[in-house]
Every structure is written in C-alpha cells, then in structure tokens.
Write a structure and sequence with these properties.
There is one protein chain. By secondary structure, this protein is of the alpha/beta class. The protein has two domains: 132 residues, 3-Layer(aba) Sandwich (Rossmann fold); 56 residues, Arc Repressor Mutant, subunit A (Orthogonal Bundle). Helix content is 53%, strand content 14%. Strands 2-1-3-4-5-6 form a six-stranded parallel β-sheet, sandwiched between helices. Strand 5, helix 5 and strand 6 form a beta-alpha-beta unit.
Length: 200
Amino acid sequence: MIRVLLAEDQAMVRGALSALLNLEDDIDVVGSAADGESAWRELQRLKPDLLVTDIEMPGLTGLELAQRIHRQELPCKVVIVTTFARSGFLRRALEAGVCGYLLKDAPAEDLAEALRKVHRGGRAIDPQLALEAWSDADPLNDRERQVLRLAGEGQSAGEIARQLNLSQGTVRNYLSEAIGKLGVGNRIEAYRLARQRGWL
C-alpha cells in the first residue's frame, strides 16, 4: 500500500484529489493539510511514503517543503501537482529533490500512475515542461532571487537590508545585478519577469 499525504490549500481540490486517489486499491491517503507548516507537522507524525503537494501555499511553499525533506534526508518522496506550467519552477523542484511534477489539467489516471512510478523509485515529470526546463535556464543566484522577491513584495532597500542582515549598498547591488541579468528597466519589471518564468 502506498501511503500518501496531501498538501493543498484549496479545500475543493484537496477533497477531489483525496477522493480520486482513495479509489485506487494500492493507494491510501493517510492525511491532508491546507498549508505548508501543517503539512510539515503531519509529515513527521504520519511518516507517509509520498507527499503530494501544490507549489503555492500559505506558510511553507511546496518547494520549501521539498527542500526541508531533502535536507533532512527523510525517506518521503515528493510529487508536485500544480497549475504552474513554468520551467523555472520545475528546475527548482528538481534541485529540491522532487521526484514528480504534474500539472492539474493532466488526466486523472496519470496521477495514480505517476505515484506508483515514483514509489517504485522512478520519476514522473510532465514531458513538455521537462523539454522547456533545459532551454530556459534561471540566470539569478539565490541571494539575487531573495532580494528581488522582497523588493517585488514592496519592501525598500533599507527594509530588505535589515531583514537579510546586509548593507543597503549590497542590496542595491543585488537588485542591479538581477535587473541587468533579466534585461529589464527596473526592479518591478524584474520581479514580474522572474515570477512569470517561475524563477521566484
């Protein structure tokens, strides 16, 4: 039996996924969570074989959950099911040790088959997205990404500097580097483009 924990912030989607997977003879949905922190607690309590998670959730994102699992070398494998058909998200997911990346508009039977494949030690990645991921490399480094995300959320250079323990000049340098790498005119355009490509 494949023991699955679901992490999805939309109640209707979470319920539908749970009902769908519980129809399978060899899959048991042992728990569900509406946000990343709850999912992390449930993961430690239930010790499922697989975590099926969305990317965007309150608290921890699906990618941050995957990174934690990967860093702590937990035996649970991660499958992302999302609406984000963006190659940048897929690249970051793979770097975080994710074993499956499927889109929510894929046929329902594909999900159960993907979970079986991942449980057996394989990978299940949307094929079109996999092709795009290798032709659309993320030019930003981790610090540029962090600074750009905070700037895009409306924080000033001073606020970002305080939060990240950097000088304001260093923050401005990171923003300038990010803007230059993305070939845009200002931090807002840089943030929009990076979000659109899935690099943030």
